Amino acid sequence: MKYFVHESSYIDEGVKIGDGTKIWHFTHVLGGASIGANCSLGQNVSIGNNVIIGNGVKIQNNVSVYEGVELEDYVFCGPSMVFTNDLTPRSKYPKGQEGYLRTKVKEGASIGANATIVCGHTIGRWAMIASGAVVTKDVPDHALMVGVPAQQIGWVCECGKTLSKAYTCPECGITYGQLAGGWDGI
Ligand SMILES: [Zn+2]
Q: In the chain, at which end, N or C, are there fewer CB atoms within 10 A of the end residue's CB?
């Protein structure tokens, strides 16, 4: 076994886990889930049936990744952030697996502590969702989203720094200008 699972955690049948991944205390990975290489799952994490998680993903404490959610490579899920998979849940009228709405978090995106991602949306590559934000629509690549409901207030570099008005990163000097098609909504 080239990955680590703490003895307090449960890994169900038919789960795939990549090399170098670490799964810490009191975590449950349900059947059919696939977790890539070099991931870190913190304490009290739950991974739903058939969830797909890429490589290098970090999931902090107290996060449930429900069925219908997909995390691409290098996604970061801050502590106690929340996913959902049903827009209109009723205990009396369960929709079952077919009724789940899909949520995709694309490569490199980060979701801050205590943020909520309402199901059925896509978070673009390298987007940054602030702590406590509630995302209720699709998020463009590199967008910086804050508040409730979340609004875009800027753009972020792949490294995480906020871009200048010229779409340049103050840290690495990269200019995203040539990629800015559709980026004039702010
Ligand atoms: Zn940068």
A: N
